[in-house]
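RECORD TYPE: inverse folding
INPUT: structure tokens
STRUCTURE:
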């Protein structure tokens, strides 16, 4: 069964790369509903977050990046994306707070510095 879920992740990524977002979303949601591997769940949430962000569906994107962060609460990559969603939703204070949190744990993070206008 794990092999099938792993294959689903490959198909989901391929659909996303090909611009077949509906197929990709369906495949990633299948992983979320049928998998217990936290690494695959995190990956599916990250990919769904990116797809929704690129479609300007920031609330949906934020949900998926937040779900991934619950699996790994020290992942600065996820925090950067959460901040991007807050910023896109007009919640600049929340975005800056999370990017400052990233800088507090990694003062060399170029993306956080850029997003905060510190470069």
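DESIGNED SEQUENCE:
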């Amino acid at each position: 069964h794990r092999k099938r879920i792993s294959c689903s992740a490959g198909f989901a990524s391929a659909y996303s790369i090909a611009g077949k977002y509906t197929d990709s979303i369906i495949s990633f949601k299948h992983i979320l509903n049928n998998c217990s591997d936290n690494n695959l769940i995190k990956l599916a949430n990250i990919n769904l977050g990116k797809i929704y962000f690129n479609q300007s569906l920031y609330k949906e994107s934020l949900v998926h990046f937040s779900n991934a962060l619950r699996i790994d609460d020290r992942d600065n990559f996820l925090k950067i994306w959460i901040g991007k969603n807050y910023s896109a939703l007009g919640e600049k204070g929340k975005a800056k707070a999370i990017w400052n949190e990233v800088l507090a744990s990694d003062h060399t993070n170029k993306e956080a510095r850029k997003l905060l206008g510190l470069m």
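NOTES: DSSP finds seven helices and no strands in the chain.
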